[in-house]
Structures are given as C-alpha cells and as structure tokens.
Amino acid sequence: MTDIITLLVDALGSEQVSLGADVADRSTSYWRPEPTSTLALLRPRSTAEVSQILALCHAHNQPVVLQGGLTGCVDGAISADHEIILSLERMNTIESIDPVSGTVTVEAGVILEVLQTTLAEQGFMFPLDLGARGSCTIGGNIATNAGGINVLRYGMMRDLVLGLEAVLADGTILSSMNRMIKNNAGYDIKQLFIGSEGTMGVVTRAVVKTYPRSTSMNTAMIAVKDFNAVTELLQYLRSALGGSLSAFEVMWGDYFTAVTEPGWHRAPMQRDHAFYIMVETEGSDSHTDTERFNHALEQAFKSSLIEDAVIPKSESERKSLWDIRENFEAILEKKPYYLYDVSLPIQDMPEYVALVREALMKQFSQASCYVLGHVADGNLHLFLCPGEPGKWHEDCDRIVYEPLKQFEGSISAEHGIGTEKVPWLNISRSLAEIAVMHGLKATLDPSNILNPGRVIPLQN
Ligand SMILES: Cc1cc2nc3c(=O)[nH]c(=O)nc-3n(C[C@H](O)[C@H](O)[C@H](O)COP(=O)(O)OP(=O)(O)OC[C@H]3O[C@@H](n4cnc5c(N)ncnc54)[C@H](O)[C@@H]3O)c2cc1C
Asked: Do 170 and 102 touch, CB atoms closer than 8 A?
C-alpha cells in the first residue's frame, strides 16, 4: 500500500477506502463502460470526512478527481491510475425544504431526478432539467453550471444556487449557505465553485431555489420549413405566450430522420421537414393556458410559420415526443461519433452549421453531421460521425471549433472544458483571462491536487 492509502485507511477506516477488485466493476463514465482506473475510491459520508481526506491528500501532493453521477460530457471526472476518486454519491440527503423563502438545502450527491420528484410530491418544482436527470447529481450540476431544457425561462444552474458549502484543496471548509436572494456583503465567493468543474474545491452542500409546481403544461412538436421560420416562431411564441414558454428545443431534419429510422423512435409526423421544434409552456390555469397555447399555434399556422404540429393527448405521448429529442441512441450506434456543445449568436447558426458540414464532407466523404440544440440559448449540440473507422477526434475538433472564431462563439455552452477541450480553450478565452484562471487556481489549490489538468492547461 502506498503511504497515502495507509494514512487514509488509518483516518477513515478500511471500509471507506475501496481498492483493486472493489472498484473493478465501476464504469469509467456514462459514455465509457470500461472499468475505471484509479489508485483508490473514497466515498465520504460528510463534509468533515471530505475535509479530512483533502487535508491528507494536500499534505502528500496526492491528486484527487471528483465524481458525481459521471454523466459529464468532457471527461472531467475520469481518473487515471495515480489519481484518487472522491465520489459524493453517499452524501445524498435532501436536508430541508423552506416553502416560505422558496429554497431547498441538499447534499451534493443528491440525484437531480430525486430532487425533482421529492419536490413535486410536495407541490414544488426544481426547474433544472436535462436528459441525464436520472444519474447526474446536484454537485455535478453546480460544478458544470449545467443548462438543459428550461434555461430560457429559469436560467442555468448558476441562477438557481443561492448558497453552497465547499471544501478547499487543503481541507478548509468554506460555508456560504446563504438562503437570501439578496446578499451583497463583499465578494460572492460561491460563484468560484459554480462552473469551475471541481478545480477550485469540492461542493458538499447547497441551497437552491424551488418554485411552486406548475399545474398546467402544454407541449407540441412543430415542423417548420427553414431556419428563418425557427427564429420567427421563437420571437412570436415569446410574445404570444408571455413568460410561460419554458422550452424551445430545435432538431435539424437530419437528426430527426436518424433517430426515427425503423427500429428507433416512431415518427409522429413526416420525416422530410427541415426543422422540428419541441415547444412547452408551464402555467397555473389549465383552461386559459391551453386556450392561449392552441390559439398561438393556430395563428402561426395561418401565417404559414408552421408546416405541421403534433399535440400529445396524454403524458405517455408527451414523453414519446420528448424521447425523440433526448434519446439519441440511434446516433451513438454510428461509431466513431464525436459530440459537441457550442454557443454562438442565433442568427449565425445556419452559416456556422453549413461551414462545419462542408469541412466535414471535404475530409470524410461518407460522413454525417446531426445537429440539435437549445437554440433559444444560442446553444447547439452537434454529433460528427466521420463514417469510417479510426481516431478522428482531433480532426473533428478542428472542424467544429475553428469556424467559431469568426462568430465569436464559445467552444463550450454548457458541458464545460474537462480534459477534452483544454487545447481549444484559447479560442474562447483570451490569454489575460486564462492567466487570471491560473492565478485563482494557484491561490485556492497551490499544490494542484484537485482535478489537475482539467479546465486549464497544466503549468510546468
Ligand atoms: C444524456 C445526457 C444528456 C445531457 N444533457 C445535458 C444538458 O442538456 N445540459 C447540460 O448542461 N449537460 C448535459 N449533460 C451533461 C451532464 O449531465 C452534466 O454536465 C451534469 O451536470 C454532470 O453531473 P454529474 O453529477 O454527472 O457530474 P460528473 O460527470 O460526475 O462530473 C462533472 C464534473 O464536475 C466535477 N464534480 C462532480 N461533482 C462535484 C462536486 N460535488 N464538487 C466539485 N466538482 C464536482 C467532476 O470532477 C467533473 O469535472 C448531459 C449528459 C447526458 C449523459
């Protein structure tokens, strides 16, 4: 046993430190089923234990990789042989719900869907929602500043966090469990831990916002003829439906066709439209909300903005429509595939996608490119499938990231940088910004033990 493992076993007890065969059946991540590599797996039950672990690792320069639900898309939580995994999975208590201030206090390992359903049972809702809801954790959502399908109404995770508790690399517990909307008492230190992907500290607990549960919901899948119609429809629905529009998710025709091939999802309408959009509203009066929703769609039909639409008649029909947007197993079969998450001004999207497709086809004659996205947030997801075996990740990265420069877009809208996008960070951040990131990291984690090599390049 290495020194650090002996010290951890002495401090925490051997049942807390999993080694070798005990870790062998743990997958690397949602995306990579092969067994994980690690020196040891630690699953603390409290903030005090996290603090103990980090104090020891800090004193012995032991690198630590933080894990939530392992659904992250940029390999940030994937550990190497010499790294210790610190998983928050046992810290999964919903501590309290405060209906008056509209807050809920949770431990970082609470699964997003567990929080959603627990709140729903009590007449509340947590608005963050994304396809990985059944596995991802609140701590992971905070660390990645997750986005998802309701951002246009409720904002990203950053907008939902009022307070949090974090443990710094040296074991210091930093408790900022603020429950108020307003608190301008000096620097808002919690922001350092939101979206910094575990490089600044371990998020152990948080106070997040909750809202009264909507009592009415209206959903439609809509087909339109071109991207102009997409943006016109977005503007129209925003004004016609007021603040009730909660989702506007766009699928390019190629994506829709691929996931509705025979054997995959059933297509609820013709498969040859240019764009398909999932639209959803939430409100509190089912009669007037539905009337307003249907009226808005009728008007859009009359002005030829919409080519076709399907309105689900039951919850199971609604889920099947959303499945087309959220479940892209059909594309994951087309190996090798590379998933991207970028943002750019909405009006530049058609030109950008055309440039990506052109560059892809130029290099790979059998390639395909599937596009979908949270278009209202300026966020696109692209699957690039070169159509031939090989390791084409770097080639595809170049194809996707280079053209972003001319639109001043971002190489990461919501997934973060992890290890995967580190070489491309300078496309979206200036040298001065990256230098400040290094400065913050050196202040909070001088020995560089927390998620080293994630987000910013390692320095010699
Ligand atoms: C099917 C699918 C759909 C998805 N859709 C979306 C989407 O719409 N929007 C979106 O934003 N993302 C999406 N994602 C990505 C992913 O779900 C999010 O990034 C999520 O927030 C990660 O949470 P996690 O608990 O799985 O974190 P992990 O994957 O375990 O970790 C992610 C990062 O956070 C760090 N981390 C984890 N826990 C902590 C902690 N407690 N303290 C400090 N650092 C920590 C890790 O080290 C790692 O760098 C999707 C993923 C899948 C598989």
From this structure: no
* pLDDT tops 90 at residue 296: yes
Q: What is the CA radius of gyration of the chain?
A: 23
The structure tokens 């596995």 sit at: 135
Residue 149 has pLDDT above 80, yes or no: yes
Distance of CA 208 to the CA centre of its chain: 17
The answer, yes or no, to whether residue 290 has pLDDT greater than 80, is yes
Mean pLDDT for the stretch of residues 174-196: 96
Residue 358 has pLDDT above 70, yes or no: yes
| Closest Cα to atom 23 of ligand 1 | 140
pLDDT at 1 over 70: no
Q: Is ligand 1 within 6 A of the CB of residue 373?
A: no
The mean pLDDT of 354-362, rounded to a whole number, is: 98
CA of 105 to the centre of ligand 1 (A): 19
| Structural domains of the chain in order of their starting residue, each with its CATH number | 3-87 (3.30.43.10), 94-212 (3.30.465.10), 216-329 (3.30.70.2190), 334-428 (3.30.70.2740)
Whether 218 lines ligand 1, by a CB cut-off of 6 Å, is no
pLDDT of residue 363: 97
CA 195 to ligand 1 centroid distance, Å? 10
CA of 73 to the centre of ligand 1 (A): 7
Ligand 1 close to Cβ of residue 109 (< 6 A): no
Q: Degrees (nearest 5) of the Cα angle 195, 198, 200?
A: 90
Tens digit of pLDDT for each residue in 56-86? 999 999 999 999 999 999 999 999 999 999 9
- Furthest C-alpha separation in the chain: 73
144, 145, 324, 410: which to mutate for ligand 1, most atoms within 8 A of CB? 144
CA-closest residue to ligand 1 atom 50? 132
User: How confident is the model over 410-434, as a mean pLDDT?
Assistant: 97
Phi, psi angles (nearest 5°) of residue 32: -130, 100
Separation of alpha carbons 54 and 60, rounded Å: 10
Instruction: Please give the mean pLDDT across all residues of the chain.
Output: 96
**243 — pLDDT class (breaks 50, 70, 90):** confident
For the chain, what percentages of helix, strand and coil (3-state, to nearest 5) are there? 35, 20, 40
Half-sphere exposure of 23 (CA within 13 A, CB side): 22
Q: How far apart are CA 209 and CA 122, in angstroms?
A: 15
Question: What is the per-residue pLDDT for 388?
Answer: 94
Pairwise CA distance, residues 407 & 350, whole Å: 12
Give strand pairing partners of 218: 281
Pairwise CA distance, residues 332 & 309, whole Å: 27
